[in-house]
Amino acid sequence: MSTQANKTKIDLDIRPFSKAPLGAEVRGIDLSKPLSKETQATVYKSFLKHQLLVFRDQKLTKQEQVEFSKQFGELERHTLRNRGQEDEPLVHVVSNLGPDGKPTGKVNSDMWHTDKSFRPLPSMATILHAQVLPPNGGDTCFANMYAAYEALSESEKETLDDVKVVHSWELSRENIGRVMSEEEKRDAPTNAWPLARVHPETGRKALFMGMHASHIEGRPLEEGRAKIIALEEHATQQKFCHRHTWQSGDVLMWDNRCLLHRADPNFDASLHPRILHRTCLRGTTPA
Length: 287
Hints:
The protein is an alpha+beta fold. The protein has one domain (20-282): Clavaminate synthase-like (Double-stranded beta-helix), CATH 3.60.130. 24% of the residues lie in helices and 25% in strands. It has 8 helices and 15 strands. The protein has helices spanning 3-8, 37-50, 62-70, 145-150, 154-160, 169-174, 182-187, 221-235, and strands spanning 13-16, 24-27, 52-55, 92-95, 123-132, 140-144, 164-167, 191-194, 196-198, 205-207, 213-216, 241-244, 251-255, 259-263, 275-282. Strands 1-2-3-13-5-15-4 form a 7-stranded mixed sheet, with helices on one face. Strands 12-6-14 form a 3-stranded antiparallel sheet. Strand 1 (13-16) and strand 2 form a beta hairpin. The protein is globular. It starts with a helix and ends in a 5-residue tail after the last strand.
């Protein structure tokens, strides 16, 4: 099929996951080619509806992933230590490899979080493309923050009105035992956002927290931390979660405004490499 034909007519097959609280598989599309406006609109509508889209059998270069991502928003830069390589700085190479190119035994991002929630304009979407996978395991888990919020009692929802949480990249690095440099701190200052945020496009409320959430603004630190931890335990119950088992060529696109996610280190990370390419799209000020 020619590029022009691909831009004008694509027969999309969107299949929601029948036994999951989120997600859909999108078939009949080649992400390496520009999408027509109609196809872009269909994909984005499905993204808002299902929160997570899975595109199978893709083979994107870094630049092609950047071009695909840009069709849905403005690319977000990565933190200093996560910036991409010189060939494409907007693509973060997610891996368990050390400087010597060998597996380290460590899997990053294995705590529940939403990407870049500490930014002045927290991430709208993340696009993650599998490059090298372990023979099994290395799944990515997702939790539906719409469903978690809606399952709270009415009285509990009322207590969250006007509550703001301080999101801190510094704290989240401390959670994994790393002390940030002063340059990193200047690059990623803290911001406070509603704990129950309103999605800017759907109008639905969702819990907004994760490992970057430090404490509740205006409350004693320990009290606020305890509240955040309790809500995360509620929000990540199995009934709100979906586990993605990666296949070669998978591209995932998910909504950071209403999902938490984490990598599952359920494979021998000292033996098998796990490499993915990540781009993020900038969002808006949470309200």
